[in-house]
Write a structure and sequence with these properties.
By secondary structure, the chain is α/β, with parallel strands linked by helices. Helices cover 52% and strands 13% of the residues. The structure holds adenosine-5'-diphosphate and magnesium ion (MG).
């Protein structure tokens, strides 16, 4: 439930570096390209000194290109199907940025879904309060000896609960107020040049307000794992319990798209349902076997894709 105290604004406030976040970040497979891009972008926003140092080193001055880069709103959108790692990456990349840049990074997380989609006006004031708090924290970071040694990340998870398209016919007046609060907050951070990043996660990019989408410096698209990515996740786990290469390939294939089913397993289907299900099948009396894996696959079908709203 929401209350007026500062604690009530965020689900969680987390400080990086933090070893458990590092482990979780490292355990996310198949996202290497996205991780690299995200870390680079985030580092430059949270540690602008490193950008100036680069400019001076390679061009002997502060080049104009730097301004174009920095004028972008510090907004990243993570979009994609449920269970594809958006929240897991958003909650942990701050740790990697902190380690690379030798910074202290604080993550403020807000999940709009947890608040219920009914009370939209409540979400509007919640968002305004969150941006105020994050700006305040970022200012404190920036104030230290004129050099940024710390930065903040605001995670707005399950953002489709709020940032629905203004074009939707059934949109209430209050929904627009929420979107406007979001846009104001992002623009305010952009112009104040503070070491802050906003990450918005959504299952339905289409439903995000165009004005919000346009502001994103980068939109990262998350997908269900392909054969290679499922293999990367499953191989070390299954090999350890005695599966041979052929059996692992069979499990990888069986968790992909199949005749009559255009979609395969999500990362969370594999990591949070299938593999734990396999352990439960064996525990306590047996060792894990290939036959059990086949039974568990049959009894744990993949989550159907998130349905786009039907007009
Ligand atoms: N790329 C990945 N590699 C390994 N496990 C993953 C990956 N993505 C997601 N998972 C697992 O699935 C869980 C749910 O993912 P989550 O980030 O909540 O999905 P989303 O926010 O996209 O719905 C994670 O906590 C993690 O256990
Ligand atoms: Mg999520």
């Amino acid at each position: 439930m929401m209350n007026d105290s500062k604690i009530g604004i965020f689900e969680e406030v987390r400080e990086f570096p933090d070893p458990s976040a590092a482990r979780r970040f490292a355990s996310l497979v198949g996202l290497d390209g996205m991780k690299d891009r995200l870390l680079k972008e985030a580092r430059l926003l949270l540690d602008p000194d490193s950008l100036l140092a680069w400019s001076t080193k390679h061009h002997h001055q502060r080049i104009r290109l730097v301004e174009f880069f920095r004028d972008r709103p510090p907004l990243f959108i993570f979009a994609g199907d449920v269970g594809t790692g958006k929240t897991a990456l958003a909650e942990t990349f701050g740790d990697a940025v902190a380690r690379e840049g030798d910074l202290r990074v604080t993550l403020y997380s807000l999940s709009l879904n947890a608040r219920g989609t009914g009370a939209v006006g409540e979400m509007t004031s919640l968002l305004s309060a969150a941006f105020t708090e994050v700006k305040h924290a970022a200012k404190k970071s920036a104030g230290q000896s004129g050099k940024h040694h710390s930065g903040v990340i605001l995670l707005i998870d399950e953002a489709d609960a709020l940032a629905q398209s203004r074009e939707l016919a059934q949109m209430h007046h209050e929904d627009r107020a929420g979107v406007n609060a979001l846009i104001r907050g992002v623009d305010d951070l952009a112009t104040s040049n503070l070491p802050a990043i906003v990450v918005m996660c959504t299952n339905r990019l289409d439903s995000l307000d165009p004005a919000v989408r346009r502001r994103a410096a980068v939109t990262f698209t998350f997908n269900r794992p392909n054969d290679e990515q499922r293999h990367a996740l499953l191989q070390p786990v299954l090999e350890e319990v005695g599966f041979n290469a052929q059996q692992i390939r069979t499990v990888v294939a069986a968790t992909g798209p199949a005749p009559g089913r255009a979609y395969g397993y999500t990362y969370s289907d594999l990591a949070q349902r299938l593999l734990p299900g396999l352990l439960l099948q064996a525990y306590p009396a047996h060792a894990v076997s290939f036959k059990m894996a086949q039974e568990v696959i049959n009894s744990h079908p993949p989550t159907p894709p998130f349905m786009e709203r039907t007009a």
